[in-house]
Amino acid sequence: MGITTRSLYGLRLVVYLMKKGGSATVKEVAENEGVPYRYMERIVQDMRKAEILSSRRGRGGGITLVNPEKITLKKIIQALDGKLVDLPCFPEDSSDCSRLIDCDARKIWLKLIEGIEDFCGSININNIIRRKYG
Amino acid sequence: MGITTRSLYGLRLVVYLMKKGGSATVKEVAENEGVPYRYMERIVQDMRKAEILSSRRGRGGGITLVNPEKITLKKIIQALDGKLVDLPCFPEDSSDCSRLIDCDARKIWLKLIEGIEDFCGSININNIIRRKYG
DNA sequence: TATAATTATACTAATTTGGTATGATTAAAA
DNA sequence: TTTTAATCATACCAAATTAGTATAATTATA
């Protein structure tokens, strides 16, 4: 289970903006966080689509966190990697994998996924940065 | 965070052997679990090195779980994928990533990893199969 | 009108994953 | 003692994913 650089950089972006307590340009964040600018641009776009942040175009524009106090690790990873955990045994599509019905192995994986989703959903970035918890 | 087919098949192997309650040949397991034989052979080798199972060569040989009651999801994934969760920000090597000292983002990732490791370590396959818990 | 920003999309390179292939080794049975 | 049935050790390859670049369009301000 690998953490991608997309999520890695996405979290850095969120932390950066929270600490700054306002807006910034993508360029500023990329430079300060050591992330390739073009790459960061694309990460920002996905986060905007997921409504983690909003943006303003044109000179003087930039990005702002939408609801800082509600951003969890789960949201960031889902926005950038699509799924939090990807189980490659052909889930909802059914048709494939004849073993699916009453597959004990699969039940164990689903248990794992549920646990990870709950846990990631409970990791509130703002609370951690503000030292409210943990 | 993707689950690999190696871990997927490794867990199937463990469940198969537990239900059978004894030994089997790699070929038997591969056929019954719908896994390519040569691939399963390599998975078995890594699990043997991790002492999840033992093997006997030659005609009449096969594989057996070593301590079925102690096998967790953590052990299986670590044996087959190396790390449970891989954080690509150059950890123990230090030298790389000048941001490392007091990096809040990294602390959050380490918190996640710790949580996942604890959780996976608590998922005991035998207990689940025997319906002792869960 | 120039400039500084985001947006959209296409492309490419590197790495990882998933799987094959080949041959050696071991041990039991014929 | 030879055949057969099993694991063991490596090397190889192809497909998919990930990481990152490139280009041009759009938007808004100065």
Describe the structure.
Two copies of one chain form a homodimer. With 134 residues, chain A is mainly alpha-helical. Chain A has a domain at 5-83 and 124-129: Orthogonal Bundle (Arc Repressor Mutant, subunit A), CATH 1.10.10.10. Chain A has six helices and two strands; from the N terminus they run αααββααα. The first copy, chain A, has helices at 5-20, 26-33, 37-49, 73-81, 104-122, 125-129; strands at residues 53-56, 62-65. In chain A, a hairpin with a 5-residue loop joins β1 and β2. In chain A, α1 crosses α4 (73-81) and α2 (26-33) crosses α3. The two termini of chain A are 24 Å apart. The model of chain A has no long low-confidence stretch (mean pLDDT 91). Chain A binds a DNA duplex (30 and 30 nucleotides) through residues 2, 4-6, 25-27, 36, 38-39, 41-42, 44-45, 48, 55-63.
> If you consult CATH, what is the topology of the domain at 5-83 and 124-129 in chain A?
Arc Repressor Mutant, subunit A
Q: How would you sum up the global shape of chain A? A: elongated
CATH architecture of the domain at 5-83 and 124-129 in chain A: Orthogonal Bundle
Classified by CATH, the class of the domain at 5-83 and 124-129 in chain A is: Mainly Alpha
Instruction: Determine the structural class of chain A based on helices, strands and strand pairing.
Output: mainly alpha
